[in-house]
Design a protein that fits this description.
InterPro entries: Ferritin-like, Ferritin-like_SF, Rr_diiron-bd_dom
Protein name: Ferritin
Largest sheet: none
Shape: elongated
Helix content: over 70%
Distance between the termini: 51 Å
Strand content: under 5%
Number of helices: 4
């Protein structure tokens, strides 16, 4: 796998962060609960920051992108996802958001495992941890909304 393939993976990751940002902003405008509005606004802001971080990777010279190019884990094969739509029931929107966060977490974990530069490893592991936190928060909300009898 060459450096251009990795650039393509990072570009796809940027596209996914933009897609997630757009989704969270759109859903934020559709929900009426102020706490959910704040949550989706916060998640949109974090996805925007992820995009900026990934864009900074694209400005590096190819030789400075420190990946082990002898291994091919088919990371790009996992990047296909259906387009997000805000015309969903709130629970369906949460399910899609949870799935998106899981996919992003797995992608960043794979990128960390392919990296050989300690700073890149730390960056991708940090992004994976943030996405894991987003997923957990969304799962808590989903559980509370889907199973209100538990309260």
């Amino acid at each position: 796998m060459d450096t251009e393939e990795y650039r393509s993976i990072i570009s796809n990751a940027i596209d996914r962060e933009i897609e997630a940002y757009t989704f969270y902003r759109t859903v934020r405008e559709k929900v009426t609960d102020e706490n959910l509005k704040n949550l989706f606004n916060e998640l949109a802001g974090e996805e925007s920051q992820h995009r900026k971080t990934l864009e900074a990777l694209l400005t590096k010279e190819p030789a400075k992108l420190a990946f082990n190019t002898k291994r091919d884990y088919k990371v790009a094969d996992t990047l296909e996802t259906p387009p997000l739509s805000a015309d969903l029931k709130p629970l369906d929107g949460l399910v899609i958001a949870i799935r998106k966060e899981l996919d992003a977490m797995q992608m960043y974990t794979q990128l960390a495992s392919l990296s050989v530069d300690p700073e890149q490893i730390e960056l991708f592991e940090s992004l994976a941890a943030m996405e894991r936190g987003h997923k957990a928060r969304l799962e808590d909300i989903y559980t509370n909304m889907a199973f209100p009898e538990a309260w």
